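Before the break, one more example. Copy the sequence into your notebook; we will annotate it together after we see the structure.
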Amino acid sequence: MPVAGVVEESQEGSEPEPEAESKAELASELKKAMAERKEKEEDSLLSGVAREIDEIEWPTFGKVLGTSGVVLGVIFGSSVVLLTVNAVLAELSDRVFAGKGIQDFF
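Here is what the structure looks like once it is written out:
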């Protein structure tokens, strides 16, 4: 069967295209459906977030306070240790290099 015959048969079997006003109606229906779907998605997003927040197992206030105390204690303790090491090394450096600047080594 020649290609032209196949094209003619497929054109004969196809439905006629809708007119311009039915296309406009279809487009407006699609826009309306898309707007409704977008509103539902926004509502479902917010309700989904609220459901997830409800499912979170939040710690008790005492546990939060205790953990925060441990963290602040470690930070304070390590600061004291590092500042002490810094002071000892600075004093040692002053004694080893007493009165000598970088220019004295050259």
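The CA atoms of residues 41 and 92 lie 68 Å apart. Residues 59-101 form one domain. Try to locate both features in your own notes.
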